[in-house]
């Protein structure tokens, strides 16, 4: 029996629970298509954080001494030993500011370049791509055009990078979502989960915290430059909920306001009622796909009073919570179809016929 070999690119760190979720969902989809015995290797900025997977990991983030030698060998070989190369879902191809572009070029650029020139078939799972400023749009388009399938998770990315290989799908967190059903306790405080963005916790989020007054906090990410602990503490929550309490094994549903997308989506999956304060295009795409467009706002341009009203209504009105549940159920068929399309693209790309491809 032939065993399929797959290389999974662009992982970050599982300590950022959203990024860890995207890797876990990517692995689950790959194994669903090709079987549990599929040989999978992982390229990640923080290999030690993915020890739990048991996979062979390559470090993509350079140290003070440069790139890891084994990683360079992998890139130079253009992944020739793999049947399929997969880009994990996410929002890592961003070139909006000079600093952002430099980080993307250094960490993600070599992986995209090697995938584009690889003779292996290539599928990038649902992405948010862009912005592509600073003269980088044309080279990014060129590299993406060399991939066999690129799934994007929001309409803006689709419009900006529309190509025969680019198609719209739902966020990976939605494709694998099975929402828990929890009872609701009106006595629970709402939960506010924040992060620093553009130099600090957004002003509107701080105003909202003052309006809510008595609320709990939640830290979604605690890794390197994505550590939210100080940001959450700065808004003075009554207490900080643990991952186990809020996401992994909650006893009752809560009202949650979250800035990080995957804090929001993981909370919805756990059975909570969530308002998302989005700082990127990905948030609007995900909540649109869930049928919850009225519960997502631009974190830098929203009315804290309006969000407070939504929180209070969800907290006190069972009909409002029932409507929220109904909207998610109504969207489930569309998300299921999206999942089947993404799985189908992996299956086609991993077939022997699918691997007959030439690059530049």
Helical content stands at 40-55%
Number of strands: 16
| Percent range for β-strand residues | 15-25%
Which class do the helix and strand fractions yield?
alpha/beta
Helix tally equals 14
Form type: globular
Task: Write structural notes for this entry.
It is a single chain. With 360 residues, the chain is α/β, with parallel strands linked by helices. Helices cover 42% and strands 20% of the residues. The protein has helices at 17-34, 69-76, 98-107, 109-117, 137-145, 155-160, 172-175, 203-212, 229-234, 243-248, 261-269, 281-289, 304-316, 318-350; strands at 5-11, 39-44, 56-59, 84-87, 90-95, 121-132, 149-152, 166-168, 191-193, 216-218, 222-223, 226-227, 240-241, 255-258, 273-278, 296-298. The strands form three sheets. Strands 1, 2, 3, 4, 5, 6, 7 and 8 form an eight-stranded parallel β-sheet that branches. Strand 7, helix 6 and strand 8 (166-168) form a beta-alpha-beta unit. The radius of gyration is 20 Å and the shape is globular.
Helix-strand layout with pairing:
Blueprint (H helix, E strand, L loop, with lengths): L4 E7 L5 H18 L4 E6 L11 E4 L9 H8 L7 E4 L2 E6 L2 H10 L1 H9 L3 E12 L4 H9 L3 E4 L2 H6 L5 E3 L3 H4 L15 E3 L9 H10 L3 E3 L3 E2 L2 E2 L1 H6 L5 E2 L1 H6 L6 E4 L2 H9 L3 E6 L2 H9 L6 E3 L5 H13 L1 H33 L10
Parallel strand pairs: 1-2, 1-4, 2-3, 4-6, 5-6, 6-7, 7-8, 9-10, 9-14, 10-13, 14-15, 15-16
Antiparallel strand pairs: 11-12
Task: Please outline what is shown here.
With 360 residues, the protein is of the alpha/beta class.
